From TrEMBL:
Its main location: secreted. The lineage of its organism: Eukaryota, Metazoa, Chordata, Craniata, Vertebrata. The gene is RETNLB. It holds the Pfam family Resistin. One of its GO terms (biological process) is epithelial cell proliferation. PANTHER family: RESISTIN, RESISTIN-LIKE BETA. GO terms for molecular function: hormone activity. Belongs to the resistin/FIZZ family. This is Resistin like beta. It is found in: Secreted. CDD domains: RELM.
């Protein structure tokens, strides 16, 4: 191996130190910055109108309990431990047990 070959072997590692190590890393950092910039420009704007669920309970004697106008039944409760009920017309709770002392309707609407 001649002197020029030795110089070449020494010169190659030195050139690697001078040339930037990885263009991929700089490309990644540029892309990361671009993505962060775009995401920072996006704004979440919730609807200016937010609705609230408003509920009340209506208790009645007997087997039926009806919600006030504009409200919908979301649940029912029946006296005497009766667990059998149905909703009639979206506004009325109907307890199905034969003897019933009270019925309660849970009524809600979006305000």
């Amino acid at each position: 191996m001649g002197p020029s070959s030795c110089h070449l072997l020494i010169l190659i590692p030195l050139l690697q130190l001078i040339i930037p190590g990885s263009t991929q890393c700089s490309l990644d950092s540029i892309m990361d910055k671009k993505i962060k910039d775009v995401l920072n420009r996006l704004e979440y704007s919730p609807s200016p109108v937010s609705k609230k669920l408003s509920c009340t309970s209506v208790k009645s004697q007997g087997r039926l309990a009806s919600c006030p106008a504009g409200m919908t039944v979301t649940g029912c409760a029946c006296g005497y431990g009766c667990g059998s009920w149905d909703v009639q017309g979206e506004t009325t709770c109907h307890c199905q047990c034969s003897v019933m002392d009270w019925t309660t309707a849970r009524c809600c609407y979006l305000a």
